Amino acid sequence: MSWVLNISAEMSASEAIKQAVSAGLCFGIVSKHTIELELETKRLCVLDVEEMPIIRHWYLVHRKDKKLSPIAQTFMTFLLNECGDYLS
Q1: Of 18, 46, 56, 87, which residue is the least packed, with the fewest Cβ within 10 Å?
Q2: DSSP label at 54?
Q3: Alpha-carbon distance 46 to 34, whole Å?
Q4: From CA 31, how far away is CA 52, in angstroms rounded?
């Protein structure tokens, strides 16, 4: 089964998406951790949708002209070692 979505609005703020969904204006796609309180209070629910979750690419970035502090370098090394498969 395939779906065709009629996208009438895009929102970048998770809080705005949660408010719009709570008001019954639409449905939204957000990270599950952003709606933990709403799930606990049953204000929102998670729909079981095939071919989810959406996989996103994450990027580890820093200022090119700034040397990283030792703690920042250690953190970056940790992220690359532990999460390297998820970073581009």
Answers
A1: 56
A2: P
A3: 12
A4: 12
